[in-house]
Amino acid sequence: MSEQTYLLPAEKVRAMAEAIVRAMGAGAGRAGIVADHLVTANLYGHDSHGVGMLPKYVAGYRAGLLRPAQELRIVSDLGAALVCDGGMGLGQVMGREAMRRGIEAARRHGVAVISLRNAFHLGRIGTYAEQCAEAGLASMHYVNVNYIAPLVAPWGGRDARFGTNPFAAALPMPGEDPIVLDMATSRTALGKVRVARNRGERFMAGALIDARGEPSDDPEVMFSEPMGAILPFGEHKGHALAMICELFAGALTGGETYRPERRHPAAIQNNMLSVLLTPEAVGGEAYAEEARRFRAWVKASPPAAGADRVMMPGEPERRSAEARRREGLPIDARTLAELAGAAAEIGAEWPEGLPRG
Question: How many structural domains compose the chain?
Answer without folding.
Answer: 2
